[in-house]
Automatic annotation (TrEMBL):
Name of the protein described by the UniProt record: Solute carrier family 25 member 3
Pfam families in UniProt: Mito_carr
Solcar repeat ranges per the UniProt record: 71-155, 168-252, 269-348
SUPFAM superfamilies: Mitochondrial carrier
PROSITE patterns xref list: SOLCAR
Role this protein plays: Transport of phosphate groups from the cytosol to the mitochondrial matrix. Mediates salt stress tolerance through an ATP-dependent pathway and via modulation of the gibberellin metabolism.
Phosphoprotein among keywords: no
Biased composition (Low complexity): 35-48
Amino acid sequence: MVMAPSDQYRQSLVPEFLYSSKVLSHLHNTNHGLPPSTTSSINVSSSPQGSTKSPMIHAPKESSVRMYSPAYYFTCSAGGIFSCGLTHMAVTPLDLVKCNMQIDPLKYKNITSGFGVLMKEQGVKGFFRGWVPTLLGYSAQGACKFGFYEFFKKYYSDLAGPENAIKYKTFIYLAGSASAEVIADIALCPMEAVKVRVQTQPGFARGLSDGLPKFIKAEGTAGLYKGIVPLWGRQIPYTMMKFASFETVVEMIYKYAIPNPKEKCSKNLQLGVSFAAGYIAGVLCAIVSHPADNLVSFLNNAKGATVSDAVNKIGLVGLFTRGLPLRIVMIGTLTGAQWGLYDSFKVFVGLPTTGGSAPPAAPVK
């Protein structure tokens, strides 16, 4: 039987208990003619001591956005634009110093001297060189990253089935975030290439408007994607760590550090948890993705540069350590702010914050 479009949107791609509240579950059962008793095994417990809880906070009843409808994914993408674009633009000065430390460590010896050199040579304006490609590139990346993460997390949970979706939830977080980042980096790569060239070669261009045509003229359109593989190497591990560790840390905070269940915490407290968990996740992200970040900076700085050139010049130890302290500070703050802004946006439109409750226990056989 062919379902109407409205019925298709109601049809969950994942186990209902993973995402929806009792209200949504009741509506789903009513629409499909199912008695409430058929889903008693997957309903959440209202007691803090209950053994069955949803891994996500209940969707607010007043939300005008139906969970997991096209409008929901669009809203999550909008939140990704808001959180990623603004935060990356805000840390442009740190990113600028970091990139130059990676490219020219003799000139930019440390964070302090790096800022001093930039101030002396380029003035205050120099600290925001490349902010336009940064804003555009990471806004596009954020839209794809968060929107597709929500989609793939839901999709892979459905493929796994209710019991396995709970048992292997961390693997679902990892697979969903990796799949989303593959798409997100295709959107980011051209802007990242121009950004690095503008930031590390002051005489190359003033910004995106003249930098993009010059880049294409020098290396062709394909040159914009020269760094896509190293970018995947940097961003996919970064994003897998960002989402999986965030979801895990949030769950642990509510389980061990806060006496009340998430549903009884104020929105301000929930958003504070999002920032704290995001910062911890960001530190881990910086460590696992730093070697590839050095490669991306090296390849986009010089025409015709290869990965072997980077390894020979920087060295294996340098790939892991050059510019790492600054990147830990930058990415920790960045990731914490991103999760705080993303969940703030979701709360603003009436959606639940991300993560936080333990999954229901697997049924005993």
